[in-house]
# Entry
Amino acid sequence: MDRLASQSTGASEKLLDIRNLKIEATVYPPGEAPRNIVIVDGVSVSLERGKVLGLIGESGAGKSTIGLSSMGYGRGGVRITGGEVILNGRDILKGGKGGLRALRGREVCYVAQSAAAAFNPAHRLMKQVVEASLKHGVSSRAEAEKRAVNLFRKLSLPDPENIGKRFPHQVSGGQLQRVMTAMALCSEPDLIVFDEPTTALDVTTQIDVLAAIKEAIRDTGVAALYITHDLAVVAQVADEIAVLRHGKLVEWGDTRQIITQPTQEYTSQLVSVHEIAHEEHAPGKAAALSVKNVTAAYGGGTIKVLKNVSVEIPAGQTLAVVGESGSGKSTLGRAITGLLPPLEGSITFGGRTLPGRLADRSKEDLRQLQMIYQMADVAMNPRQTVGTIIGRPLEFYFGLRGRERDKRVAELLDKIEMGKGFVDRYPAELSGGQKQRVCIARALAAKPSLIICDEVTSALDPLVAHGILQLLLELQKEEQVAYLFITHDLATVKAIADSIAVMYRGEIVRYGPKSKVLTPPFDAYTDLLLSSVPEMEVGWLEKAIAGRRMESAGN
Amino acid sequence: MLTLKNIPLSAWLGLIVTGLFVFAAVFAPLVAPFPNAEIVGDVWEPMSAAHWLGTDNLGRDLLSRMIFGARTTILIAALATALSFTLGSILGFTAAVIGGWFDQTMSRGVDLLMAIPTLIFALVVLSVLPGNIVTLILVMGILDSTRVYRLARAVAVDINVMDYVEAAKLRGEGRGWIIFREILPNALSPLVAELGLRFIFAVLFLSALSFLGLGVQPPEADWGGMVKENKEGIVFGIPAALIPAAAIAVLAISVNLVADWILNRTTDLKGGRGNG
# Structure
């Protein structure tokens, strides 16, 4: 640290100073000449030693691009075309390749969103954690490994002495994310770039990782850029927050100020809690679907993932199934659709008992039961146009052809608030929210009585997700369709559910109308889930950790 | 979308040369200066104004034989490739979609077929069966389809687990729709690139068979057979055997150039409209 401190001569106490940064990329639109687009336009932010700056914005706002520019890196053909990135008193963009090589992994380290994809599966964790330290000659292998073990302990990983001997697939996702943080800290850098480190994790795991990261930052005195789209998360770890939109800086200020007194319209939109007006329906109407004592297993009956599960969805209402990953909530959806025939128990749908296997079900049953997926971009055939995607169920179930079909497709596009111009688009030419809307239209085209929504908003930005939820509720009113809403996000559940089932390790631990399930006294697991949802309040994290009654499953 | 300016130089070269060969093959009777099997001069005459490439071992016009040879070679190779692709890809896709015992039987059967060296297998089969063009095409097509099957199955297994295929299955679509409308369009780019390569292998395979005397039978002309007929001339410094050999090489290279370009154009994994 002394060596580095002496480099930054007294002129500025700033560790990182990004001035007027401009980043461009070349796009190749179909049928037109390639042209340049500006991804980041004239952004200036700076960061003092040991402080944490949160970069926040929706996808496409340029937050990751700015984060990576602090290492002089442009991802996938992106070019830094203007401005200065001053780190430790020198402009890293002028240092050439050798300068960048000396910088990356030594002065600036990176923590990726998906640790699972960022680790090399063929090497043990320890080898990868100490690699940068050895490459840069920071310390000997023995010293580096000692430091790594200390970091593992600080990040509260289990068995810190020996976890480094494991391979990446032998630890859970939340643990891997913490190992990656240890990897970044191991070479004792001045700055760490955290690129959405908790976005892919469960809320219950997220809180552990967040606490570990926060503590490690505090104890090592490293500065950090924390990139995320979740304002509530960044409020827990950042000293300052910069809000970005369309590659421009919207607002930059102290965390408390951004959260409590935003000066810009867009920031206050992000900050304000989005209430969705939804009146809970009283149960008691005829059940659209009832699942009785269903047990299901993978691997020929050896691994039971659903144990004696019974739920009921009244016609035109919404049942939300909540739980961590691995709790069996998606498997419940698969059992209902027939993709995973249950071992025991029965599924009754519209008064009929459904055959367990998909192949044995009638076309009418299939029509009545539709599904919407989490990842809208892989749920649509990339080689079919929107018109074909929405039109096919019409053709298939109702035999509509030609002009009649086109008319109905236009009606459906209108329902999902998209214009006629989208008929000839391919999925790759739509935004994330539009893709999910098309998937909703495809499900609606079959005029179903139940739609299974598997994490439909978790891959979307908060504002876009909000729009999708509102659309789903409106459609429910118009079409009297019931939803089975599978999610890990309790905020979503609070907004749209009529009844809630909480799942834990394949069993339903709490089930009933929303008002009852969300009223104390809670069982330990529901309490953990509820208390893990980040709130937009400085200091929430410490309070939540202190108040916990049980550990998360750590998936 | 596809403008002439976007085509790279190498692809242009490939397209022009391949086009020339195909043109010669299709219009052989009109283009060739002499009939295919007529003796028009002395044995192994050098190149002259009357015989641009000279004459062959029986005194037939070499250029005319080359042109008629292109016709036979390209026709047989094209039909064999078409057969191998239809058979291989449909069976490969079906195996991937159905899975289970069907997949196992098919895949192990293909393994068995591939374990036997192709050339020896073809020689044995062709020496037993009556030697005509139809048998030749069938044998070449079926043997080649094992390679296509492997590729098609591997690609389809990946696509088969995508959510959009699951969505189609949940809709209740039949296997036909899933194979031809969901999987095929997404598996097309690796298959098209493979098509060029397999066509070239078919040309080489046919030439090898003809050279060994089990392919196209005289007096029909084909390039492999022509190399065989004229190979004794090489010791006397006569290039008649090298010309059909060079034609095989040039066709192979030019088709590959086109296949490379197509692969480049279609490997945009995002689907939809390809990049320029």
User: Anything to note?
Assistant: Residues 62-98 of chain B form the longest helix (37 residues). Chain B touches chain A at residues 1, 162-164, 166-167, 169-173, 181-182, 185-186, 270-273, 275-276 (CB under 8 Å). Residues 91 and 133 of chain B are 25 Å apart (CA to CA).
